[in-house]
Amino acid sequence: MMTLDAAVMRFAALIVLASVMLAIFVHPYWLGLTIFAGLNMLQASFTGFCPVAMLFKKLGVRPGTAFR
Prior knowledge:
The chain is mainly alpha-helical.
């Protein structure tokens, strides 16, 4: 079973990759989603607050070391 840390990082990676693909094939404004994801990861590294981590925790993903 995967840890909370791995789930959050995988989710962030999927968001970034999806937004880049959407920017290439649909419209460049989709890069805003990449910017949002990057800013959210940056603030989470300083504050420890991550809404996706909270959601995954409620879904029963076991804790890792970064988001407790």
